[in-house]
């Protein structure tokens, strides 16, 4: 099992031989065929400075049988594979089924290992026509995008964000979604899902190459805002498209602080860092009752920005997909998300 050491900011990795958990009544043994090496935990603060992170580490350390303050975190939670054995109470899966899912962090297991033992409802059937690599590569970002748009942004639900102008007016304006950094893997998934659910979409990018990639997705966009251009302003672009009404949902797809791994890649490959709009500009783009969904765990708002949110009756939501896997109350919704994502992948809605 491959495990990353968080204390070294993922600068080192360790390969350890560990015993698999026993197969319980509701468990399934899965032979891993593909795994996505991604972890949202690199953006967390150090244990000594962040009490919330310390509590999470202590929980994972107890699972791994360690009493140290720093623990080794499993590398890769997004997996696809074949069911090799099932517990006696498992009813939805059978030996030989192809499955895809995400390993909850509190299991202490890595998708880089040959086998994992998960609960029956942690995975769903993988449809025909979808490869193991494609399933494992898209499921993590697709779950995040689904949660951000449908459950946090209320797009496509009963509490929809549509705002329609009177029929006799010059145009009809329906809810607009702004995806910051649409060329990222999460950003491209957000664009495809938002278009499928009927939203009007804007996106931002940091270079002309990113703009070309976004255009290649084939998703109709109102505008692509290049943040690296001096004459481009996120606020002015949003106001121009919405008649100064603002956008309903803004989704920030990256953390403001790059990890040590990201910094090394930028330095070695000579990549330009992503250009981020200021928090004031993001809030200024929101409509009345708008929602800002962010992946930034260390977000801090100054009193002027907080007051601006208050005056717009707007809200900020934090996107942490692992919370849905760690919460038993969301298990049914999580199963629905996984099954719906696989249907969208096999039909080509999500690519």
Automatic annotation (TrEMBL):
InterPro entries: CRYZL1, ER, GroES-like_sf, NAD(P)-bd_dom_sf. It comes from the Eukaryota. One of its GO terms (molecular function) is oxidoreductase activity. Residues 8-338 form the Enoyl reductase (ER) domain. Signal peptide: none annotated. PANTHER family: QUINONE OXIDOREDUCTASE-LIKE PROTEIN 1 (PTHR44461:SF1). This is Quinone oxidoreductase-like protein 1. It comes from Frankliniella fusca. The lineage of its organism: Eukaryota, Metazoa, Ecdysozoa, Arthropoda, Hexapoda.
